[in-house]
Amino acid sequence: MMGSRHAHVTAELGRRIVAGRYAMGTTLPLEADLLHEFAVSRSVLREAIKSLEAKGLLEARQRRGTTILPRSNWHFLDMDVLNWIANSGADPNMLFRLTELRAIIEPGACRLAASRANENELRDIENALERMSAGTENPSEFQNADRDFHLALLAATGNEYLAALGTAISAALAASIQQTNPTIHTNRATLPVHREIMDAIRNGEGEKAAQASRRQLNETLRSLQLAGSDDGLDNPHGA
């Protein structure tokens, strides 16, 4: 029970911080006020604050209170932090920047997968692609399958750090797919390049898989750029 209360307080305070409800450089409300609001013990609240300190969101000091740290301190690859940002809608640049990261990493991951993937890992990628194909008219099913395709691709590299990165960005990846593939038309349009990636990996053609991945992610960046033009996207590459 204590664990669930701790998780609830941690998540609620984390969401408020990333959404800007508490301004950076200011302090959290008084401990007594938070204890009253959340109806938890002092030990639960302090454990939640320690968790947020470990994620780079807070700094607690005696006689100075608990300060909201600037974004430069946040651990952006922490799964909770990424999820809170993705679900808050507070950062119109977040999905674009995340896709830039993917555009650097995934083509190389495709090369590794083409040379290392075992049969089970290949089947995981193929199954996700089949679900994408079957779910083009169901946005939710398609988006889940698309996310699983990319997670399976990272897992197929045989590199546990890349697989862990996929797990960390899973929620943000899903948010990106929702924005760039909102219709039956966009779902169908993206299938051929995903199939090209899969076929190249299956055939051990690493460079071909990497090139297809690069094209797919460049198109995703363009889609996010267009979507962000009406939402205040601060795109470093211009319009």
UniProtKB/TrEMBL annotation:
Residues 3-71 form the HTH gntR-type domain. Keywords: DNA-binding, Transcription, Transcription regulation. Pfam families: FCD, GntR. Transmembrane segments: none annotated. PROSITE patterns: HTH_GNTR. It comes from the Bacteria. GO terms for molecular function: DNA binding; DNA-binding transcription factor activity. The keyword Repeat does not apply. InterPro entries: GntR_C, TF_FadR/GntR_C, Tscrpt_reg_HTH_GntR, WH-like_DNA-bd_sf, WH_DNA-bd_sf. This is HTH gntR-type domain-containing protein. It comes from Pollutimonas thiosulfatoxidans.
